[in-house]
Amino acid sequence: MEPEATPQVPGTGELPEAARRGPISHAIFRVARLHRTLAGQLLREVGLHPAQELVMMQLWERGRMRQTDLARHVGADAATMTRTIQRLEKAGFVRRVRSTSDKRSVLVEPTAASQALRRQVEDLWARLEDYAAGDLTPAERGETLGALERLETNLAAHVGDAEPASRPGAPDA
């Protein structure tokens, strides 16, 4: 029987001992971190920060939306969405208006200035895709996307299920 190969972390050597029981999770973390770093570099070219482009994509696609719906579509909490919208508004890319039908609701809409940004975001998103997929064949790209969608489904099924881990030294309940 051959010994099991130790997973490697490109550029850093072996997978840390504590992460060996979760090599896929560790790989997801590394890839997500690199993807976000590269996305941030590309987005700076057009004056955006990571995740702001996701907000703009929703607004360009759907038009005026309630801020709470926008947060749900992007997967952000209310406080994060408020800060993001404030920054985008200050940059001139969105406008907030009170709903005429529900005074408690705030509607967010893309401005004319954001329309010039749209093509740039689409182009940099395509560059990011090319950087991420590299030399994968079309078939490998499809397989990768399918595997990522399955991972997302698996993880989504357990969001909220996890019991809080007991902390060392914490009293038992």
UniProtKB/TrEMBL annotation:
It holds the Pfam family MarR. Residues 1-20 are annotated as: Disordered. This is MarR family transcriptional regulator. One of its GO terms (biological process) is response to stress. It comes from Streptomyces argyrophylli. Residues 21-153 form the HTH marR-type domain. It comes from the Bacteria. One of its GO terms (molecular function) is DNA-binding transcription factor activity. PROSITE patterns: HTH_MARR_1, HTH_MARR_2. Keywords: DNA-binding, Transcription, Transcription regulation.
